[in-house]
Specification:
By secondary structure, this protein is an alpha+beta fold. It contains nine helices and ten strands.
Length: 263
């Protein structure tokens, strides 16, 4: 998949409002992605009603009919209008419940308050030069990649997703159930339960798989020794690292290294 998804950004805004008039039924030639950070928003898209609560998101596609109900209570949301190079790269869901993970929230927080493309910007609109299109495009691109990855995982459970994101971002460190539970501020018992229920495997198994996948990539793309690869992935005991690798791929790290060299 081409990781450069975003073609252009028409408009976005980070808004906190107490009330707002309804947006009448309309059809646009761009995507409309909205995250709700507090309160509730209600839409009708192609005749179907969607209610967004805190940490939910909605993607409305080009050509779809959109109607948004009047806002009568305080709500904070981020709304982004954009086009893409390839529609098939976009997430397939319309409503994504409880999708604002730690990673997505951090990315959303990088946005300035508002942006409008030069072609639709009002003459009195202030656009600081450091809010470059390239920065905003890259942030949105990362958000869309996060949404695509979440869709592939097959769960919208924010606790399970935060656990996965923690493991992936700390794959080069020793990771334990205790360190995971401390990070997500949940008990070890609940972490084990929710992860097994949502992902279908134990936290320990997922940690090992993530590290072994990275070990294989390092074997393919680096000239590091097997001992260095083991240490870089947080294993102080090479024999244990080798055992985990063989259980995952059916070959020892040395055997895999020789196979990759022959190919």
């Amino acid at each position: 998949m081409n990781e450069d998804i975003v073609k252009s950004i028409r408009f976005y805004a980070v808004r906190s409002v107490r009330s707002f008039k309804e947006i009448p039924t309309s059809v646009f030639d761009f995507y409309d992605l909205t995250f709700v950070l507090a309160g509730t928003l209600s839409y009708i898209v192609d005749g179907e009603k969607y209610i967004l609560k805190k940490n939910d998101a909605i993607i409305i596609r080009p050509g779809q009919q959109k109607f948004r109900h009047k806002i009568t209570e305080p709500v904070k949301y981020v709304s982004i209008n954009f086009t893409v190079f390839d529609d098939s790269c976009m997430p397939q869901q319309t409503l994504m419940n409880n999708i604002v993970t730690e990673n997505i929230y951090k990315l959303i927080s990088l946005f300035p308050v508002e942006y409008r493309a030069t072609s639709i910007r009002a003459q009195n609109y202030f656009q600081p030069p450091y809010y470059s299109f390239a920065k905003i495009k890259n942030i949105l691109n990362l958000i869309l990649l996060e949404l695509i990855d979440i869709e592939k995982i097959g769960t919208n459970n924010v606790n399970a997703l935060n656990i996965i994101q923690y493991i992936q971002s700390h794959v080069y460190e020793p990771i334990t159930l205790s360190s995971v539970s401390r990070h997500v501020q949940l008990s070890k018992e609940y972490v084990s339960y929710i992860f097994k229920r949502e992902i279908g495997k134990t936290v320990s198994d997922y940690i090992t798989e993530a590290k072994m996948d990275q070990a294989l990539e390092m074997l393919r793309n680096n000239n590091l020794s097997l001992l260095d690869i083991s240490k870089n992935l947080g294993y102080n005991n090479y024999c244990y690292f080798s055992k985990c690798f063989k259980e995952t791929f059916g070959h020892s790290p040395k055997q895999m290294q020789m196979t990759l060299k022959d190919n």
